[in-house]
Amino acid sequence: MQYISNYFKLDELGTNVRREVLAGFTTFISMAYILFVNPSVLGASGMDKGAVFTATALASSLGCLLMGILAKYPIAIAPGLGVNAFFTYSVVIGMKIPWQTALAGVFVASIIFMIITVFKLREAIINAIPHNLKLAIAAGIGLFIAFIGLHDGGLIVANKSTVVGLGSLNVSTTWLTIFGLIVTAILMTRKVPGAIFIGMVLTSVLGLITGLIHLPSAIISSAPSMHPTFMVALTHVGEINSLQLVVVVLTFLLVTFFDTAGTLVGLAEQAGFMKDNKMPRVGRALLADSSSMLVGSLLGTSPTSAYVESSAGIAVGGRSGLTAVVTGLLFIVGLFFSPLLSVVTSQVTAPALIIVGVLMAQSLKQIDWQQLEIAIPAFLIVLGMPLTYSISDGIALGFIMYPITMIAAGRRKEVHPLMYGLFFVFLIFLWILNVN
After folding, report:
1. Which of 100, 123, 143, 178 is the least crowded, having the fewest Cβ atoms under 10 Å away?
2. Where are the domains of the chain?
């Protein structure tokens, strides 16, 4: 016990083993929903839900353990919401790219991510993309996720007269979504730890009681086989042979990289780790994330990222890597609860997607709306993602408009050369999508 205390410097950080274990458990409860939401989202792409469940648990466990042991931060890692939606709805369904090829794209992006991290090129990339556009990407993904949740839950449906409209309240399963949304919103407002997870549990219980959800055959079982997805990414790397797929890989890289970087900095601020406006050991933290992303792609899941739900563990006193280690070990325990997948229907996960969308949309307040040369491209990114039902299309609209508005405002010298390069890349990307 003393070795653990010394390794994680618990005394120096003003914490103890008991507090760190409690923080790790709190973080896990707050983000355990990803075990059930990720298979649901990726399952829509045609991937085997059981295999994704196991891959999600293992990739999350590895990411948390690496973050805790190497970087020594109380920050958890798991497949990110938003980028998994991009994987399924934009790449596989929207672009009609097989999920196997998309998974290969995640693998390639993770290799690039690791190279960028090892050679310390992250600062150059971070500086190339304007801060306001990073915020817009996060907020846009939040709106996109919320839109998916509203649609999956039956609250928003297609409408020939108005494109979309309010779903019928005569559909009994829709009321599960409404119940889950209200309960989760109340719990979140009351700052109850694990609010999203508790909301999903209560919604599932209501569904079982009313007969809208069928009882599972069991509660505990052995972990589902990963055979349908294991190492599939490696055998399809050769299919990354078109500009369209290169842009997909780039988008996986950008979204994951900036989502993780932003979350890390935000959580470091919350925990008081920032020194001189810099985050110590950020390279190790990014290496932990990129490593879990690489392994996750080989196991069969979308990119991993740092989780904002780690703030729940930090809030109860988690200050060391021991918090993340405990969270990682709990993901291993979660492997044996796969039968509950049949209980977690789209109406159960929909409220979680909507609430996570709210959390991600909070970055809107930090965008400089007073400068139109910034506001217009940011707005196109934010609105473009849900309206085009594509994260990449939303990013393309904003990145194409950004150099134009900046030049018009006489600020062309402030635009990084990479942004001019991305201007042409996304122009070609949209043209390819249009002609196909």
Report:
1. 123
2. 2-364
